[in-house]
Amino acid sequence: MTLDTGMDFGPWLARQLKQSGMSQADLAQRIGLTRAAVSAWITGRATPREETINKIAEALGTDLGTIHTRTADTLAGLPISWYHRPGHADGGREFGNAAAFAFEADVEVLAREATQNSLDERLDRAQPVRVRYTLHELSGEALARFRDEIRWDELLPHYEAAAEQDQKVGRMIAAGLSDMYDRDRLVLLRIDDYNASGLTGDDYETGRFAAVVRRQLDSQKSTSGAGGSYGLGKATLWATSRLGLVLMNSTLSEPHEGRTERRLVGRLDLPWRKVGDRTWAGPAWFGRPDPDAEDVNVARSWWADEGSVERLHLTRESAEPGTSFLIVGAHDVASLVEGTDGNADVEDDDSVHRMHHRLKDALGRNFWAAMTGGGKQRPLLEASVRTFRNGVEIIPETRVDPRETQPSRTRALQAFLDGTTVDRMTESGQVAMATVPLMVPAPGGNGNAVEHRAVVLVTEAEDGKKGKEGKPNRVTTMRGNRMTVKIGWVPGLPVGTNPFQAVLLAGRAAGDDAPFADEAEAFLRAAEPPEHDKWGQTEELRMLYSPSAYRRIGALTNQANKAVRDLVALPKKGRKAGSERLRKRLTVGGRRTTRPTPVAGPPTLEELDARIDDSGAWCVTAEMKIPTGGDHWRPTPVAKLDVRSGPRPVLSWSELVAVHNCEIVDGAVRFAPGSRTAIFRGTTDVSTHPVRAQFSGLVVELRIDKGAQA
């Protein structure tokens, strides 16, 4: 007879014997055959007869259907359970996963990091990776059934022990338990990706599965142009869970143990704790005990049946490769803060409705470029969000459309992909393009620098004021994965400049024919910190290139800003038209009755642009916003190092100069009468730096002492 459809019979039988603790000789004895016959089946040299299949099913305690399909394990295997890592023999204790503290428990951060990881694992490069976020609020009987499925009774003593600790993680867990028991509510947030690699590889050896499930700070990326390189991004999954619990269901792009579908595992991140008379180190895994491990309780992934996957809320829509991550007890710190903005009497709003809209906004803001196609290029990404309550859809699935979230920037990128850019804008809706140099140094300083040509795109802003896209007159920077890295202000724009949006494409984002795109991609990837929110000095950049390599990025920024200023410069006719509009707002002669103006508040810093010069000093250009009638204030700019804890060290200025609408007198800023904005430039004194600028951040404050008014 022929056995087909699922896993090959030999490997499947060997797996069942291993999981049930039965040897080949034991099975041979139970079915009345020789050990050599069983060995022949396992090695694939032969297949059993139909009457023998019946005996094997009886010996393994399963049915004929399971043996014929071989898409699930028999019930003879050890049951699914939780394995908690024992406490360290030397008494060491970790009160949480340090990697999770690198990010805020914010669904916007989660969307940025998780979607970037999916982009990095795009399988078919000619097709987009599809990412879907599903919020599901459980209560009542639905919540009780889910808790039973994850063996909640086994977990509860560990949660209670962790919640009693007066540590940050302990307090978060206590809040999660309170939310579930007091409000009868548990929020699940599932992230599905399709056309992705999936969690391939062995449970313990080097591979994608082990990098995500078993290890910290391990980044297994498919391409050199991937967004992540630190292995920190996956920690946002656990950071978003108040219970520190994430379940996974992966469809593999490469078979493991002869199978690809429904590879399940769970990981729990708790602090050190004592339950009864035993201590536990922190993490725990949800899976099938591994008979090959030294500790028989060590849990590994298992191949689940469709019913188990459905009860765990992990059913995938197709057999297309990718992974589903289920965050149990999801919460959003930023939603709590925003929930009180409008009315101080309103309770914190951590509803799934708010989380739904924040996820949608974050995807549109960070990945609009990845979702834009043009010419012969399809989008790199498709993303959507949907929300359920107890199995009923309460917010229909909404696909994120970059033309709605970022209309101007999307128009600019699409024109570049379509090849319809112009040298200079002369009509509404046009996109102007220029190229600027990025001198990429040779790794390790061994060789000459090469010149990469990055692309600058400029188009008119869809909304002249702050709208969907934020403030106008900004440059959005990105590289090959087309995730927004930074949005920067363009300094030195002449008065009367029409509002615009600009995009800087570097590395592989600059096009297949861009010179030295791969070299630029690797260089910029090394220049990104774990947050992937800027290009600058990093330890990786220093190690791979040179201590001064970061200066090339400052030069790129300056060149890009100059190109933008050239592209948006108004012709003389435009300037006259602007002057005419201003002239019409003036009144000459006559007497005007004015209402008394209330006392204006102090000025505030509106924009800050900074770089590190060749001497290691911070060079800052700052724009201040001055309220009407507030030009009498005399603020003093103060530079401080940005540190994670403790007071910020104050730096001295080696130079402080006025640029626009102000003058500097004894270190204080004096505004020109009637000014609404002013700009100054400052350079810090390197001798007052307690640490080198390359290893620190900078904070600039306006100190306004009593009596500082004129």
Question: What features would you describe in this structure?
Answer:
The protein is α+β, with helices and mostly antiparallel strands and 710 residues long. It is built from 20 helices and 26 strands. The strands form 5 sheets. Strands 1, 2, 3, 4, 5, 6, 7, 8, 9, 10, 11 and 12 form a 12-stranded mixed β-sheet that branches. A 5-stranded mixed β-sheet has the order 13-14-17-15-16. Helix 1 crosses helix 3 and helix 8 packs across helix 9 (168-182). The chain is elongated and about 100 Å long. The protein starts with 8 loop residues before the first helix and ends in a 7-residue tail after the last strand.
Characteristics of this structure?
710 residues, alpha+beta, twelve-stranded mixed β-sheet, five-stranded mixed β-sheet, 25% strand, disordered C terminus
Write the layout of secondary structure elements.
Elements: H1 9-20, H2 24-31, H3 35-43, H4 50-60, H5 64-69, E1 81-86, H6 107-120, E2 129-138, H7 140-149, H8 152-163, H9 168-182, E3 186-194, H10 208-213, H11 235-239, E4 241-251, E5 263-269, E6 273-275, E7 278-289, E8 299-300, E9 302-303, H12 306-311, E10 322-330, H13 333-338, H14 352-367, E11 381-389, E12 392-399, H15 402-405, H16 407-418, E13 431-440, E14 450-460, E15 474-478, E16 486-489, E17 500-505, H17 517-526, H18 539-544, H19 551-568, H20 572-584, E18 604-612, E19 618-625, E20 636-642, E21 650-651, E22 653-660, E23 662-665, E24 668-671, E25 677-684, E26 697-703
Parallel strand pairs: 2-11, 15-17
Antiparallel strand pairs: 1-7, 2-3, 3-10, 4-5, 4-10, 5-7, 5-9, 6-7, 7-8, 11-12, 13-14, 14-17, 15-16, 18-19, 19-25, 20-21, 20-26, 22-25, 23-24
Helix pairs in contact: 1-3, 2-3, 6-14, 8-9
